[in-house]
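U., I forgot to send this yesterday:
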Amino acid sequence: MSSTITASPEQVFDRVIRRIAPVWPLDSFVAVNPYWGFADQSFPEAAAILQGTAGERVLMDRRWYAEQIQPSKLSMADILQAAGDLGLSTDEEEWREYLRQAPEPALRLPTLPELLDRQGHPAISQFVVEQISRFMAAYYDHGQALWSFPKASGAGLYETWRQYTLKDRSLAPMGFKAIRPILLSLSPDSVIARDWAVRILDIPKAAEEAYFLVLLKSVGGWASWCRYLLWQAEMQGGSDADLSDLLTIRMVWEALLQQTARAQVLERWRQQLRGWILADKKADLDDALRGEALLRASEIVFRRQVASRIRHQPVRKHRAGVGPKVQAAFCIDVRSEVYRRHLESVMPSCETIGFAGFFGVLLDYRRQGDLTPRTQSPVLLNPVVHVEEKGPEPVIQRRFRRLRRGAEWKQFKLSAASCFSFVETAGLSYVGRLLADTLGWHRPSVPPDDAGLTAAERSQLQCALPASMGRDERVAMAEFILTGLGLTQGIAPIVLLGGHGSSTTNNPHRAGLDCGACAGQTGEVNAKAAAGLLNDPQVRQDLVAKGWDLDPHSRFLPALHDTMTDRVEILAGLDDSKVDSQALAELREALEKATNLTRLERILRLESDLRDPQVVARNTRFRGRDWSQVRPEWALAGNAAFIAAPRWRTREMNLAGRAFLHDYDVAKDPDFGVLTLIMTAPLVVANWINLQYYGSTVDNQRQGCGNKVLHNVVGGTIGVLEGNGGDLRIGLSEQSIRDSNGGLQHEPLRLSAFIEAPTDAMDRIIAGNEVLGNLVEHRWLSILQIDTDGKLFERRAAGQWISV
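Result:
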């Protein structure tokens, strides 16, 4: 890794910790771009750095691409075109020879524990990671452990680890008795300890930043957790030192090992460090550029498929003067694309709309009894509206009592006094439940908001905007929602606002199947809040007074799309006399038909031999209830495109659940405010999702979470370990991207964003937003313009748009 020689130690240290991407806890698990910390580097530069330091792959093996060269997939012409686009050689024979050769492994930066490992003895490098991981799991525990970890008041992460390690009895069997007196004499202050470690290690300046990155990457899962804590603190204008302390811990471990290592080992380590510094880094970059050319060639193939299907002329939707009976807004999630297509096919009088699932309302939500609210909007943005749960006090109290009894029962089962006798005395009473779980008779795991409530009680609870929110604020928010949805005129009698979630069981990462735009929660709260606001008589009255074409009889209905069963449930408004009962019945019938068609299409990737609609319906319901099911649904596997254009461009176009569909009509956005929101929020969220699937595919060992069957939850909601130890695992499991035969269900492609808007407007938005600018300029995603004639132009640089 390149490093500025004149940079101060603090600057180097800060750059290293900023290279780590955050990971969200299990109860709000959202997709994260694992290369977020390298967005200021070009794609091939980041690939070369990560491969040449931590041994982390950012590109698929060239032999995988060689296998893709066949008709209808990848051609040599595509590879040569991609090579030319990147300024590389376009000699065909040279590329064929390159694809035939086995790749040379990059010379990665060695760490001292790896050189201390000896065959036939416990691995020192693994022990260091295990020791830190055990401490971190205890330190951050969120109520899973029966005995809480004692923490000294005011002590930080490093100081607590030092006290923990001084009492750690596992050091002696590993031969580390000599470490204790050194650690005892070391300052409890993190900065002083870090400076001591820097002096002891004495890493050459040319390798210092890279070495510190490798150390932090060796506990990369816990580093991502600490980066999340820093992210959350900075979103609120504060800071958090835990990530810095974790790097200090890892550096101190390295320095302690150096103090006790044999001279021969230290000399070999120094020699390898010098060898790494002198190695040709340009060769790594050249190889990364070639790998990017192969990746780009695959992207060219995919874009060609999309381009060939984009409509050039609008379809005739309705008779002149006759508007749609229903407008249904769904999240831009790729799973919604399949459902929208089928809903439009069975109900031609329905217009579907794609909009990020938070519906433009940046809110957080606090249930009655919760101490803190949870975020229900993109994690890149701060909530500005605080929504509260409202309901009868007796219902709230009953929920509290049931949850408390459940917690007390669990505590009793696991306590030291009863855990050994519990199975003998109560084991047989669980036979019925085990049988019901195995046969899928029970419903899926209860969502957090449903826990402790009956269905009737749940229906009595509502979410309401704060009473302190003024009338003008409510009207402004309603205008923002309607503008974002493109509902500036011709609003239908029924407008469905469909959030989404997924019903599964025995799945620690269940939140990852819910709405990413709602911070890993279902979109129920957002849909209800938006619908309640838009149905408010006072808000409606003010909107009409301001010139909005809003029929007083039109109603907004919140709904929830279960992506596991593909059933859409209307959540409220069923007994509202202002809703036309016949139109509502027609809508329900259409939703049921669309559900069946969507199931039939999506089941082909899961159970290709099923065809009967009733069998498919039973299968999808059972998958969500089956506690042994490792692939309840494919979620967003296969995502590769983001399309922001009028719906007529893609209506009746089969995108196979691979595209994020965001409706956008530039004619309704004269100041490009909606375009700015789309490109700086939903597009970036889609990029995070896309690159998490990409990273988990190309290097599941470092950017994924391995085998789902071996997962064990740690810390209550923090994350998972694979097996009973090791580092915290991040990203997606192998089962989320591969089928049972090992075949990939997610093709590793960077996101291609197709946007129908003026190129100069998009250039200004890219230049005015640092986050988006880094992603686009450094080739982490591609922007393609759809012009008014339906032709495509790819952005290569500001003002440079090339016809494709």
